[in-house]
Amino acid sequence: RDPSCPENEAYRFSGTDADGIERALQCAVDAQPAWEARSIDERSMILKQVAVELANARGQCIAATMLDGGKAAPEADGEVSEAIDFANYYADSMSNPAFFDGTRSKALGTIVVTPPWNFPFAIPCGSVLAALMAGNTVILKPASEAVLTSWEMVKLLWKAGIPKEVLQFVMCADRSAGQQLISDDRTSGVILTGGYATARMFQDWKPEMRLFAETSGKNSLVITSAADPDQAVKDLVKSAFGHAGQKCSAASLAIIEGDLYDDPSFMRQLRDAAASLKVGPSSDPASIVTPVIHKPDADLERGLTTLDDGETWLLEPAMIDNNPCLWSPGIKLGVAPDSWYRHTECFGPVLGLVRANDLDHAIRIQNGSDFGLTGGIHTLDAREIAIWRERVEVGNAYINRSTTGAIVQRQPFGGWKKSCFGPAAKAGGPNYVALMATWSEDDLPKETESVSTTVEPLLDCVSKSLPEQVAALQASAGSYARWWKDEFSIEHDPSQLHGESNHFRYRAHGRILLRASGMSDLQLAQVCLAAATCGTEIDISVEQQNDLTKALPCPVIEESQETLIARLPACASNYGILRVLSPDTELQRAANDAFLQTITATPLANGRLELLACLREQAVSETTHRYGNIIPSANTILNELAG
Fold this sequence. Notes:
Largest sheet: 9 strands, mixed
Strand order of the largest sheet: 9-10-11-8-7-13-14-24-18
Shape: globular
Number of helices: 23
Oligomer: single chain
């Protein structure tokens, strides 16, 4: 049903049963070796042809997205552009020679893609193409609210040259069929974009599954007294109410410094800006706030209709045209930092305002969330920007602009904390496709650098304990040093736009837990060297110590797996990841329940790949123009002052 007129049936679709799931899985498994046997260049050429086919069919793709999702035409058009960008970007993503310095890749096998309904064209297209580029076969199971959009997209991918047995389109007749597809042993990985609860359900079905998931968010925009109020209002309204607030990156909260929060003129301006937005069906070109996907669920209904203690309406939402899917924007005053609304993802056109005493208080409120998807700040004070940049705990950080965007390469997308499951490389970023493969070594890396004085003592220590492995240890440490120096310790702005900086950077985990069972002494030493290179502390859990672990200058805990599992709930929050080879179901389930992400990749000497296990990715986008005038970024201002 079209959310713009839900009383009318738009189309019908059918789902397959257990027999259909079985046929799809076996077909994908049978087709995978031949697809992976094609060269990287050949797969790349097909993806670039996908971009051509998508561009040629832009109109029909926009129409399907508007029908399924109730999207305004500009929002739908942006999705098609993003899908084209994914095709062109991922086509070149396996061409980086650094990935193949002594290493080679092997596709995971068959990947199931389970995309969301709110971005029904771009997200499934990007997920499918990333998995295909790495040599996997793909089964796409679209969201039931957006079947037509995914069907139109898949037909274009087939037309571009992707064989039907390599990319299959499967709708499941019921939940049991979906569980069968996702939890089958022939499914080598799952790419999910959806809610946190859905990701946890998938893990319960199959604890050891490779799950690459971008999940929930409770995103906020900090506005300080040093902000430009006109720009802040414009960007806040856009962040909160674009696509009726149905973006995982939408600003659901504004955390406003007291002087501005108490300013009646600012609140009047914010109210008027939101109230002026045209609310209507997606078929009306003037509509800015279009319908939500279906009648509000319990959380969204409460967010739109109920005030908690201390809250008042700055702008009260209302149902429009007797359409239960169409609501005008709502803005709540007096939202408390510990309230229900502050911690609940409502996913609709409602915004909460929180009063902060100062910047430090605002950052603590912003970071005081289980989720860490996107966040922003509006301030013209370069010192405030510098403080916020270093402390904000989100995967996508936005400065003096809206909190939505995530353009391929420019702002690769993916969050921290409970907004992310899996190794956490960002979609539309330089490492995403490499995640869809396993990597092994044929030789030692050639690209090396002298190790730093902080790592050198550890290298000497492990070399004395492993005299027969000195050459491998030195090559590993040298490769780690080379890629830390040239890639991971510096911020990159590959887009180099005029009027906007888009920095991609890596942030080291503070501490990781290594369960060393099954690892060779060389692999254990490599993990320790990689962590030391990144400045990450490491705790090692072993069944029994040996000469190497006794010599290491880090905490080593001698314990059974049962003891480790028993203590995980209490200690998991101390660690960024659990590094372990081939965890059994009990350990994996315990890590999942403690929300401790596991990295199971084999340790490598190639630093371009190995250091990723110690790092999180972050995209920082900053607007560097005001009213048609280019202004320096906050970093530039502070560097000039320091100089």
